[in-house]
Amino acid sequence: MPRPAPSRSSRICCLPPQVPLPTLTIGSPGANRPCGCLRAGLCPSPLRCSGCPDPRRSRRCGFSDPPLALAQPPGGWTEVCGIAGVSLRSGKPADEFLGRLSRLLAHRGPDGEGVHRHRGSALVHRRLSILDLEGGAQPIPSEDGLSHIIANGEIYNYRRLQGEIRGWGVKLRTDSDSEVPLHFWRRFGMKFTRHLEGMYALAIQDDESEELILARDPVGIKPLYIAETGQGLAFASEAGALVKSGWIEAEVETDAWPSYFNKQYVEGPLTLFRGVRRVEPGEVLRIRRGEIVERRCYPLELSSATRMGEEEALAAFDRLVSDAVGSHLQSDVPYGAFLSGGIDSTCVVTRMAELAGEVRTYSIGFSSDTVSDERGQALRLARALNTSHQAVEFSEADFWELLPEMCRVMDDLVADYAILPTLKLAALAGEQVKVILSGEGGDEGFAGYPYYSLHEQGFLSRLRHGEWFRSTGNAHGFGSLFRDARIPDWRDGPRQARFGTRGLTRLQRFQARDLSDWLPDDLMLKVDRCLMAHGIEGRVPLLDRRLLEFAFALPDDLKIRGDQHKYLLRRWVADHQPQQEPWAPKKGFTVPIRPWLESRRVEIRDYLGGHPGLEDLLVPDAVNSWLDTPLDPRGAKLLFNILCYAVWHDLHVERTSPPEALLRPSRNAAGMEGG
Question: Which of 261, 276, 297 finishes a domain?
Fold first, then answer.
């Protein structure tokens, strides 16, 4: 679908005013030679802008110049890390327990650790240094030393908030964005998170009141878990740390079964560990001496569809995506991006290349006749943007070798088969970079999933406030396999989305439900665990709060037009990277699990039979009969859920390893391809 080129008035400089101006490397030949549009006063930045009239420019202004680098802000952005701690009803936290928590989160922060204790409370922090490599140690104390904070994530608007803090007459101890929420909590109490823009999970301990504050960002990008016992309350960045530290027994929460076996993840606050719950997106908890005394939630502010013309929306998106990507590029260490060649990653990497110059990109694909392989698309864009690109193949041998690793790192289990290739890609990227940007969030914000088209169909006219459209799940029709009738009888709705749906269009209601559970409870867990397993911070610029709220409020016809989903993003890609074929049908990222499971159906049947974690869950004779016949697509998906659960149970509950005969390691995976 050809699109007319936008007018010059709709084109903007690729660097928004909120992002620090980029500079050429000091002493480089082109450091004092700006592009033609800068000399003409048309562009405030030495980076190429989309309307640059300089005919000599190439990918970046000054085509023979070395790569541009974003000017580093002084001080430090928060390092990705692991946080944990405890608030006891009585007594003092044992050093041995705090040490176990720290060691269990060491993979999240191998560059350092910090602990603060006061009476019955303690904070534990593990650090992975991304910026301010020499400073930024946590916990960070307040000016009077009575309060301390530990945080995981980034506060994007911290510079402006620092100015407000200084205006109150408060002296900041550090230049880190992690300190900012501490002072806003002291001034505004439980409402302090309403001032923050970013991705975060944080804990504040106030020694004077003996209170502990826990908070999580409204999108749910960063994870945070709690477990309450008779001793008090403990928290951690990973559910498994609360179990393996000995704080709580490794027991299964059977109330989570219906959600997990039907949706491939557990929705809401529950996890598969009995007694371990998620702090929900936007939630703020106040804990005193081991008990939750106040609970509030400040979710995303999703508004009904607005009236907006196509060119106006396109220009607004261009500004917002520049701002979002620019704010995610703050780093003193190498960074890169996952590049599938699809619409979302194309948007992110295109803007990365314009803002940062040199970019490393990584892609993965399959040699299979049953699923699409997007490595060719990714390579085409990488060459157009001159990125340093590497591609790797994911094979059946990788599937079986990485399955135990997937179930180990996914302590809060998600049976999303896309996790497996993401783990392999993260292992490659982790050898070269510490920060990865990816395109998650584009489908949820801009309506990319094919089932969103159902909002126009008449049989859904009964859809009411908050009702969900996926009425049955993966276990529907397999009732004979399960002892627990709640699993095959499960229905997904009606249930209120976290944000409320009053005044929203039907399409927005669909999106609100995905933003409510699918995004934080599946996709964000995948990003966090896969990347943290290899010491990488994952950043998702399309989930920047301002960009996401803008996308959600777009008119429906700028999200879906005819058979084109994510219409506005496709239009943007058509203007910037037309060789990526933005009007082609969505392919999606699919793993050929059916033939791979089929190849070991007998071994799987033998493994599941008599498994201690399945005795109260499955009917053995029915499972054997089912696995004596070839798998259909729905059966393969359910079998993958069951298999992942069994392996997870081995690793996290029984503390044993799956049998070698089932998960035989193989080193025959395909090698890397250069691009």
Answer: 297
- Within a domain: residue 174? yes
Residue 278's SS3 state is strand
> Roughly what angle, to the nearest 10 degrees, separates helices 310-327 and 545-552?
160
**Burial tier of 102 (Cβ tally within 10 Å: 0-12, 13-18, 19+):** buried
Q: Between residues 675 and 589, which one has the greater pLDDT?
A: 589
Is omega for the bond preceding 494 within 30 degrees of 0, making it cis? yes
Mean pLDDT estimate for the chain: 83
What burial class does residue 56 get, using C-beta atoms within 10 Å of its C-beta: 0-12 exposed, 13-18 middle, 19+ buried? exposed
Reported as type and span, the H/E element at residue 216 is strand 211-216
Cα torsion 58, 60, 63, 68 to 10°: value is: -170
Our count of domains for the chain comes to: 3
Q: Grade residue 588 by pLDDT with cuts at 50, 70 and 90.
A: low
| 405 and 371 together in one domain | yes
Please name which of 435, 354, 358, 423 lies closest in space to residue 394, comparing C-alpha atoms.
423
Q: Where are the beta strands (DSSP E) in 478-635?
A: 537-539, 560-561, 564-565
Residue 233 contacts residue 203 (beta carbons within 8 Å): no
DSSP reduced 3-state for 285: strand
Residue 369: what pLDDT? 66
What CATH number is attached to the domain comprising 203?
3.60.20.10
Query: Domain check: are 129 and 179 in the same one?
Result: yes
Give the alpha-carbon dihedral of 450, 271, 493, 443, to 10 degrees.
-20
* Spatial distance between the Cα atoms of 187 and 182, rounded to a whole number of angstroms: 9
DSSP 11-30: ---SS-TTSPPPEEPTT-TT
Q: Is the sign of the CA dihedral 430, 537, 415, 584 positive or negative?
A: negative
Q: Is residue 655 in a domain?
A: no
Q: Is the peptide bond before 139 cis (omega within 30 degrees of 0)?
A: yes
309 contact partners, CB below 8 Å, separation of at least 6: none
Residues 404, 363 share a domain: yes
As a whole number of angstroms, the distance between CA 101 and CA 84 comes to 7
As given in the structure block, the two tokens for residue 593 are 């699990």
Task: Compute φ and ψ for 176, nearest 5 degrees.
Answer: -85, 145
Distance set, CA 119 to CA 90, 230, 231, 292 (Å): 9, 17, 14, 18
Q: Which residue matches tokens 């053995």? A: 620
Establish if 495 belongs to a structural domain. yes
Closest CA to 83 of 135, 140, 147, 131: 140
Question: Are residues 215 and 124 both part of a single domain?
Answer: yes
Last residue of a domain, one of 72, 102, 132: 72
Stated as kind and residue range, the H or E segment containing 36 is helix 36-39
Domain that holds residue 265: 81-297
The predicted structure's pLDDT at residue 127: 77
> Is residue 453 located within the same domain as residue 562?
yes
Work out the pLDDT band at 81, boundaries 50, 70, 90.
Answer: confident
Assigned token pair, 607: 């493994």
In a domain, 135, yes or no: yes
Higher per-residue pLDDT: 465 or 520: 520
Output the six-digit token pair for 403: 């399955």
User: For residue 323, what is the enclosing H or E element?
Assistant: helix 310-327
Question: Which among 402, 376, 454, 408 has a CA at the least distance from the CA of 652?
Answer: 408
Q: Within its chain, how far is the Cα of 329 from the centroid?
A: 16
Average pLDDT of span 441-452: 94
Same domain, 359 and 469: yes
The answer to whether residues 451 and 344 belong to one domain is yes
